[in-house]
Structures
1.
Amino acid sequence: QVQLVESGGGLVQAGGSLRLSCAASGSIFTYNMAWYRQAPGKQRELVADITSGGMTNYGDSVKGRFTISRDNTKNTVYLQMNSLKPEDTAVYYCHAKYSIYWGQGTHVTVSS
């Protein structure tokens, strides 16, 4: 069983930056990991994912602004978010892909 705990969300002005962290209670070395987000009234969408080998993939709306990374020695996945826009406002979730493991979410609010 793996528990995922997100942190780092908050309120930021447009153009600002935040760094989200997802700490796992167990080893995530073999998992592909992902960040998803869900805005009010919208479906959950993929923000970015990273394979166990470090290959990354991004949603079109965040390409060039967000960076996903992982530190397997710390069992932690990160999401560096730069040039934030009001439309990035959402609850951000960490997920171990192809598993049942999701975090509880962290709120990100970007003011204009």
2.
Amino acid sequence: QVQLVESGGGLVQAGGSLRLSCAASGITFSSHHLYWYRQAPGKQREWVAYIRIGGTTNYADSVKGRFTISRDNAKNTVYLQMNSLKVEDTAVYYCSTLTDWGQGTQVTVSS
């Protein structure tokens, strides 16, 4: 059974930082591209970042230069380092293989 479990969300002031983690089980982690998505209240889920099997990364324009995605295949974990957070980054953040999804972790950025 595949499980993706996010953690690390919380409440932070604008300009602050958070590091999200997503621990995977039930999959051959190193064989999957990995994605972070987010969904703000009243909005559709949007792609945030991905990291390919070989380590290539890409980011949505709205987070480029502020967020960093990384992976640790030995720990079956993908991370999202979020710096210079803005109020508009407030959302539930999900990790995904595009086949499987985690339950999400809430990130709230206050002004």
3.
Amino acid sequence: VQLQASGGGLVQAGDSLRLSCVLSGGTFSRYVMAWFRQAPGKEREFVVVNTRNGDNTSYADSVKGRFTISRDNAKNTVYLQMNSLKPEDTAVYYCAARMGPFPGAHGSSWPEMLVYDYWGQGTQVTVSS
């Protein structure tokens, strides 16, 4: 399985961007998809997760109301629509995938990096003030 992320760029505060992540080599609908990000000098952090059928979605508090995840199973693609971008959103954004069940109580491990099996290469998002 391979993940290819794209769509990053340099924008101004308040602008929007849409990131895409294409999964190949597997049956996309079987995978839980997530986005993480890593800012310079900081640890990689959870942004959002979307379950296989799209029924469950969980966002980090820092992006709630501004970011929206969606998936198109026919195109093997997960999207991250980012609106009202802020300079603190500047980071490399990574998509991640997991097919198997998640450990722990329902949803408790969704934000944990180590539970994801596959990672994309990252796409840079830079938001200027």
